[in-house]
Amino acid sequence: MKSILNYSSLSKKYVMAVAGIFLMTFLVVHLAINLCLLRNDDGEWFNAAAHFMGTNYIVKFFEIFLFLGILIHVLLGVILQIQNWMARPVAYKSASKSTTSFLSKYMIYTGFVVFVFLIIHFMNFYFMKMGWVEPTFTLNGEEPDFYLVAKALFANNLYSIIYIVLITVLGFHLNHAFQAAFQSLGLNHPVYTPIIKKFATIYSILIVVGFNIIPVYFLFCNA
Amino acid sequence: MNLTLEIWRQESPKAKGKFETYKVQNISADCSFLEMLDILNESLIDKVQLPINFDHDCREGICGMCSLYINGRPHGPDDEVTTCQLHMRKFKDGDTITIEPWRSKAFPVIKDLMINRNAFDQIIQAGGYVSVTTGGVPDANSIPVNREDAELAMDAAACIGCGACVAACKNASAMLFVAAKVSQFALLPQGKIEAKDRVKAMVAKMDELGFGNCTNTYACEAECPKGISVSNIARMNREFLCANVK
Amino acid sequence: MTKLNSKIPQGDLAQKWTNYKSHQNLVNPSNKRKLDIIVVGTGLAGASAAASFGAMGFNVKIFCISDSPRRAHSIAAQGGINAAKNYPNDGDSVYRLFYDTIKGGDYRAREANVHRLAENSNLIIDQCVAQGVPFARDYSGLLDNRSFGGAQVSRTFYARGQTGQQLLLGAYGALSHQINLGNVEMMNRREMLDLVIVDGKARGIIARNLVTGELEKYFAHAVVVASGGYSNVYFLSTNAMNSNTSAAWQIYKRGAFFANPSYVQIHPTCIPVHGDYQSKLTLMSESLRNDGRIWVPKNKEDAEKIRNKQLKANDIKEEDRDYFLERRYPAFGNLVPRDVASRAAKERCDAGFGVGNTGLAVYLDFASAIKRLGKDVIEERYGNLFQMYDKIVDENPYENPMMIYPAVHYTMGGVWVDYELQTTIEGLFCAGEANFSDHGANRLGASALMQGLSDGYFVLPYTIQNYLAKEIKTPRMSTDIPEFNKTLEEVKNRLEKMMKIQGSKSVDYFHKKLGHIMWEYVGMGRTKEGLETAVKLCKELKKEFWSDLRIPGDINGVNTELEKATRVADFIELGELTALDALQREESCGGHFREEHQTPDGEALRNDNDFMFVGAWEYKGEDQTPELHKEALKYEAIEVKQRDYK
Q1: What is the third-level CATH fold of C268-407?
Q2: How far is the alpha carbon of B237 from chain A, nearest alpha carbon, in Å?
Q3: Other C-beta atoms lying within 10 Å of the C-beta of residue C430
Q4: DSSP line for B124-154
Q5: Distance from the CA of C101 to the CA of which of B220, C149, C326, C639 falls in 20 to 30 A?
Q6: Which residues of chain A make contact with B6, given a CB cutoff of 8 A?
Q7: Chain B touched by C637 (CB under 8 Å)
Q8: Helices (H), B47-127
Q9: Whether residue B8 is found in the same domain as residue B84
């Protein structure tokens, strides 16, 4: 275990980056499913997708990697951060005025917020799926009706606002994470890096807007 | 111009330091920052007080000896200069200037603003060279080098080993310093022969010495007095990955 | 005279070094491990020598006053390094490099040494390229060359404007490699304060640990001093703040002769002095003279208006500009050797044509080069120098001509060494700028890097063996023997004496005062009266120093004022010797210009009949006049001529 934890700073970064990229691709899938909520079909598509995600064996197989990815990403993130704090035992008196990419300085904090969000999210959906929590709505008496669960949650304005804020923070995290992952893996190029940076911004905006359309929709259109 | 200086004073490596406030008067705008400190030191000696210790040598921005974290920036408020090349015209009359030593676990304070940067030497000793010994080498022109690669290698080789990258990094990471040396040799045919061993040894030493990790904030690049690019860090990441998977 | 044996090998000039290497004594590998060498200084000469010794199998300790070997002032050399590779096919050869160096040195260097230097020049380039030094390349990927002052061929290899840095980092890499292998031990933040002699042979040093303040004793079978030059005797010079002559001066006081201290190089392209708080001068590479044109206004009135800020440089019309180097030296133009260029600038300023607010500056103009080559080319060639100038002076040199003035830059004089680089003390060697070297009375651009590396990589590794071969039976000595303890005691007393003065003046006060004396009386134009005044003032300054110096703080721990004081004490004594040497040399040659000895048109006038010798000074005790020994210079391979760059 020690050898894994103490493994080179660079190796940790590679794992962080690979796990991060995997999580980012998953987000796209997740977004696609979420957007089904917008269909006026009483949750037919959404529940179908949820059912597929919950029962398909290939998905279940990837689910292992998803959780492993989250676990490793969080664990390494914390280890790296502790090491980084230890690397400067005496802090500066004056606040840093160096020009840096602003969001990059707060990754551990935005990461923590995302983690809190995940816990809430798990409690609301995943635990229900696993049967650890009694479903609040069911489709046929046993399988949870996630469409109604989601609808009920978003009916709560406070929940929706918190959701919007947390997703926005996730966007900040992603904006830096996306391009940093490439740098960590050694992919820096005078032509492509600026494109990657632009794409990172577009990606993070799409994620934020995509996910947030739903609570907004429920807040204003479906009240 | 008249200035108020808040300067870190520390008797010895183990002593507890603190900030002291000093005033300097009638400083010319053409004066360099270190000359301003010289003037302060002369006045302290006049008053039979201990002068402020700071590292400095060439005073033309190439030896990498001067340091100083000035108002929240290594080498002060000017871009792509060392502290010795910083001029007082970058400040305004009446300014308060906070001067601190580089802060890093790997760079302990020796006295006042003087720090021990031996860690950088140790990283180079771990492998930051081509292992040729004197004599018995081929004719210089028998090793052609693509001009673009030579230029990129020179960009990386311009590092002066001052440690501003470590000082600026919120994680006190030495990635830019290590990457610059790794890059220089990775780009040149002479260096390619030992490239894998080099990058492994240098990264291992860097980790061992207690520098932080890179979180891609790029403060190092922003503060490097020689403008060394973080693309070198990516190149090192690449080199290290290749060295370990192949 | 009898005391100086230069040990120049027999035979034809071109064969001397080969002959030497064929017949010298060698040390076998198993014995090398039993032999210790101390190297003082980590510049090009010291680092390259230590790395080479380590690779050969000797046990080496290398001493450095800074935190890292990479801080040594060799790092600041900008322009380049000469070699007789003849890659551009423009007629260069080892002989021509040798000839140019002898001529550039105004026929005051040893033929055999200089020829060896020229031979080694090519090996240095090979060595450095193998180390990964990123020299400039052309589009074919082969090495590029540029031209430099004092030569009519392009033989200078360069790495942008940071050649010294790259070469030093190459040597530092080689040194680091040997440290990693355990062959060399790095002793950083330590300053050599004395030499230990046992039975007439150098056997170690006393060094002060600059962090703890402790005095430490180190034994070695041989000691190499490569501690650089003494330009800082002038206070304002282009040398680094910590550059000093103390190691060289202590060995002088222990019996090594000090040669030609009056040969000081004043470099023409420095940024002019701008205030009395100034701590050092900044050099800009001589390579600027390749494309820049040096001028002052033709009319005194214009010069005066410029000084009073009524006119700007660009207001002066082309026909009202005096390109004085091109006018006086049509063949070499702006590329005349440094001493010639410096004196010509001083002559114009003294005559009232100087610019800048002090009148002590001339223009270096790139307007025509920018017109001819485009701004991009100029930026590529000199970008970093232009940026440096802009940062210091706060003026854009792409739009306004730069202002330059000569400043002390390099010292050709130094510890006297024989052909083997051994001093007059057995087992004590001296390399690089610290020795009196191969540059005669004037050093050509891009030759210092060549000499430092030649000494370190390709001369000392051979010659030190010739000495150490006789030492294989000498066992390692304990540093508790009386010789070590006595020397340590002497150093300790000296430091304590300094600390106890508790006068009223800081070290810098004395250093600045010394600088004024030296620049005023032992600068670019020297006279008998001036030099006599300098000797007198130095003596007085020494007295004042030892009675009114104030060093705050403690003898233990870090005390930079104490460090500076030990160095300035030595500078004051060296200043006096420099003036004495300049006084005895009744001629003008290279960097030494006596106003009494000049041609009607103001060129240096040598006196080959009486002064074609190396003046080596022997220390005779505190406040005693040192004794001058003369090593006659014989020119067999080349004809001695008046230097002519017209």
Answers
A1: Flavocytochrome C3; Chain A, domain 1 (3.90.700)
A2: 5
A3: 31
A4: HHHH-S----SS-PPPGGGS---HHHHHHHH
A5: C326
A6: 93
A7: no
A8: 118-127
A9: yes
User: Mean pLDDT of all residues in chain B?
Assistant: 96
Which residue reads 């010069």 in tokens? Answer: C303
Encode pLDDT of C173-210 as tens digits: 999 999 999 999 999 999 999 999 999 999 999 999 99
- Give the chain A residue whose CA is nearest to the CA of B107: A88
pTM of the model: 0.94
The verdict on B154 and B95 lying in the same domain is no
Query: Please, what sign has the CA dihedral across residues B62, B65, B68, B69?
Result: positive
Give the pLDDT of residue C526. 96
Q: What is the mean pLDDT of residues A14-29?
A: 94
Query: Does the beta-carbon distance from B51 to C552 stay under 8 Å?
Result: yes
- DSSP letter, residue A219: I
Give C-chain residues touching B48 at CB under 8 angstroms: 550, 552
Where along chain A do its domains lie? 2-85+102-221
Third-level CATH fold of C482-611 = Methane Monooxygenase Hydroxylase; Chain G, domain 1 (1.20.58)
Question: In chain B, positions 132-151, which contact chain C (CB-CB < 8 Å)?
Answer: 132-135, 137-141, 143-147, 150
Residue of B nearest to C168 (CA): B63
Domain of B12 in residue numbering reads as: 3-111
Residue C52 touches partner B, C-beta closer than 8 Å: yes
Q: What is the pLDDT of residue A2?
A: 44
Q: CATH code at B196?
A: 1.10.1060.10
Contacts of C513 in chain B (CB under 8 A): none
C345 close to C362: Cβ distance less than 8 angstroms: yes
- The pLDDT confidence band at residue A6, using thresholds 50, 70 and 90, is low
**pLDDT digit string, tens, across residues C470-498:** 999 999 999 999 999 999 999 999 999 99
Whether chain A has a CB inside 8 Å of the CB on B233: the answer is yes
The verdict on C561 touching B (C-beta cutoff 8 Å) is yes
Final residue of a structural domain among B59, B83, B111: B111
| Pairwise CA distance, residues C2 & C7, whole Å | 12
C-proximal residues of B, 97-116, CB under 8 Å: 110-111, 114, 116
- The answer, for B183 touching chain A at a CB cutoff of 8 Å, is no
- Minimal Cα distance from B199: which residue of A? A10
B240 with B129, same domain? Answer: yes
On whether the A2-85+102-221 domain is CATH 1.20.1300.10, my answer is yes
CB B102 within 8 A of CB B167: yes
Q: Which stretches of chain C drop beneath a pLDDT of 50? A: 1
Which among C165, C277, C558 has CB closest to B114? C558
Break chain C into its structural domains and give their ranges: 268-407, 482-611
What is the structure's pLDDT at A5?
46
Q: Domain of B107: which CATH number?
A: 3.10.20.30
Mutate to test the interface with B, among C232, C241, C271 (most CBs of B within 10 A): C241
Cα–Cα distance between A149 and A134 in angstroms, integer? 12
Residue B102 and residue B142 in one domain: no
